[in-house]
């Protein structure tokens, strides 16, 4: 029988978060691009939609490059061992 203040013997007690780490204001640019695309659809403006889709491609390219560099950096760190 476990009392309220006793730790669970089957679980390790740690101070780290158990989920993803959230970085404040890290999704502002993709959110603005989504808002721009939705505004272009609502206004039925082809030029604005083209600009918004180009901005989306640029944001996706930058995000992909950042993830790729993280993978390469992780591989470099593993190779140091």
Describe the structure.
With 81 residues, this protein is an all-alpha fold. It has a domain of 53 residues. The chain is 63% helix and 0% strand. It has two helices and no strands. The protein is elongated. It starts with 27 loop residues before the first helix and ends with a helix. The model has no long low-confidence stretch (mean pLDDT 84).
Keywords:
mainly alpha, 81 residues
In short:
Helices cover 63% and strands 0% of the residues. The chain has helices at 28-43, 46-80.
| Total strand segments | 0
- Can you tell me the residue ranges where pLDDT is under 50 for at least 5 consecutive residues? none
What gyration radius follows from the Cα positions, in whole Å? 22 Å
Summarize the helix and strand pattern as letters: HH
- What is the average of the pLDDT values? 84
Percentage of residues in helical conformation? 55-70%
Subunit arrangement of the protein:
single chain
């Amino acid at each position: 029988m476990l009392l309220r203040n006793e730790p669970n013997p089957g679980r390790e007690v740690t101070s780290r978060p158990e989920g993803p780490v959230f970085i404040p204001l890290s999704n502002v640019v993709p959110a603005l691009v989504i808002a721009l695309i939705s505004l272009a659809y609502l206004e039925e403006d082809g030029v604005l939609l083209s600009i918004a889709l180009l901005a989306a491609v640029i944001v996706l390219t930058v995000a992909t490059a950042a993830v790729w560099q993280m993978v390469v950096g992780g591989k470099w760190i593993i190779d140091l061992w």
